[in-house]
Fold this sequence. Notes:
Elements lengths: L5 E9 L4 H8 L4 E10 L4 H20 L4 E4 L3 H4 L5 H13 L3 E3 H11 L4 E6 L6 H10 L3 E7 L13 H14 L5 E4 L7 H11 L3 E3 H12 L11 H5 L2
Parallel strand pairs: 1-2, 1-3, 3-4, 5-6, 5-7, 7-8
Amino acid sequence: MYGWRGIVGLVKPTYRPGSLERFIRLMPDGVCVITRYVGVRAGTGKEFEEALAIAEQRVAELAKLGVDVVVIQGVPPIMLRGYGFDAEIRKTLQEKYGVPVLTATLTQVDAFKALGVRRIVGITYFKDDLNPKFGKFFEEGGFEVAAMRGCLDVPFSDLGKVPAEEIYTHAKRIFLEVGGGDCIYLLGAGWDCLPAIEPLEHDLGVPVVTNVPADVWATQKHLHLREPVKGFGRLLEEMP
């Protein structure tokens, strides 16, 4: 029987490949995923402002399909509205459509708390007009943000081509430059950063949190599943 351990509705911000496949492979057998897309293409502030209205339409579609939980991926659209907005929109959508909803921002904040993180070193692939707003989001949530810094100069459409080795190098450099922290935060699912997680954790001695593992961890928790996964960092291996 398909979906005998749960059916997840996934709302993805972009059409880019990679993060969907990663999410499905990291979820336990017996969990099925139904995907809907928002259609972000350029990663601009204007697109992110418009994305939430489209995301609500996708939640409505998935609720009609009878999924057990909806996960809204993509943090910029919600972060730009400020801390606390994610809890409000989650409550509104759950009441309106009768389905549990997780947002990527909430899964990541919960992951930080589960790992005992207070000081975050954030690395992103966005320009500096957005990064201070991302940092402010976490500061409003009570975290100390040692850095929220963009490290790439590549087109938004080419992020998936950035080697994990390059991500590792930038993250390690920024972490050491700011004097370290309790965690490295790799913001965004557009780059293939998962292979960099374990080397960073081993070399710097702190956990690494990023979108897909946090979404997998939170979704397992919601479905009352516990299948640790090795090779992608402490969050999925220890399942705190």
